[in-house]
Design goal:
Layout: E1 4-13, E2 18-25, E3 31-38, E4 43-50, E5 55-63, E6 68-72, E7 75-77, H1 84-96, E8 98-101, E9 104-109, E10 120-125, E11 127-130, E12 142-147, H2 148-157, H3 163-174
Parallel strand pairs: 4-10
Antiparallel strand pairs: 1-2, 2-3, 4-5, 4-7, 5-6, 5-12, 8-11, 9-10
Length: 178
C-alpha cells in the first residue's frame, strides 16, 4: 500500500541534514504529519579484505553521539559530483592511508527508510596499496588489519556497532566473500 504525500515543511535545515514534517495520508484515510530526516549526501564505505592475511582494514574510533568505541570500515559522505565508488576509495585513503582496488558493489541500501532518506553504498575490495599515513588523522585512534576470525567475534560482542560496518561485514561473511 502506498501512502499519499500532501506536502512537506522544514522544521530545521543545515548542510548536513534537514528535519521535515511530511503531511501524509495512509490507505485507510488517516492523515497526519510524519517526521523525516532528509540527508543531502549519500555515503559509501569499503570492506577492504587482505586475502593473504585473511584480515579486514578497520578503524578504531569513538562516536561522541553514542559515547561508544568500536571498529568501523572506512566510509563517509559523497562529495558533489563524486560517484559512490570514488567516494569509497577517497575515504579509505583519507581515513586509513590505504587505496583499495577492484571495488565490487556489495549493496546499496537505506538504513532507516521509516524516517531517514539517506542511501548507503557498500563495496568490497580484495586488494589495497599503502599510500601513506591517513590524511585525516582525526577520524580514528588507530588503523589495523583485523583478522577475519576476530571480526566475526566483534560482530557479536559489541566491538562493531556502527550500522554500515555491521551491514558490510555481515554481507561479506554471509556471501562468503571474506
Amino acid at each position: 500500500m502506498r501512502w499519499t504525500v500532501h506536502g512537506e515543511r522544514y522544521v530545521y535545515r543545515s548542510d548536513w541534514m534537514s528535519l521535515a514534517l511530511v503531511d501524509v495520508e495512509i490507505p485507510d484515510g488517516r492523515r497526519f504529519e510524519h517526521h523525516v530526516l532528509r540527508m543531502p549526501r549519500e555515503a559509501a564505505g569499503t570492506v577492504v579484505h587482505d586475502v593473504d592475511r585473511d584480515a579486514v582494514l578497520l578503524l578504531w574510533r569513538h562516536r561522541f553521539i553514542t559515547d561508544r568505541w568500536g571498529w568501523e570500515i572506512p566510509a563517509g559522505g559523497l562529495d558533489e559530483g563524486e560517484t559512490p565508488q570514488q567516494c569509497a576509495v577517497r575515504e579509505a585513503v583519507e581515513e586509513a592511508g590505504w587505496r583499495p582496488h577492484g571495488l565490487e558493489l556489495l549493496a546499496s541500501y537505506n538504513p532507516m527508510p521509516g524516517g531517514v532518506d539517506q542511501t548507503f553504498h557498500l563495496f568490497l575490495a580484495e586488494e589495497a596499496e599503502r599510500v601513506g599515513e591517513p590524511t585525516d588523522p582525526g577520524e580514528s585512534e588507530r588503523v589495523e588489519w583485523v583478522p577475519v576470525e576476530t571480526v566475526q567475534e566483534a560482530l557479536v560482542d559489541g566491538r562493531i556497532v556502527e550500522g554500515m560496518t555491521l551491514t558490510g561485514l555481515s554481507l561479506a561473511l554471509a556471501t562468503e566473500r571474506i
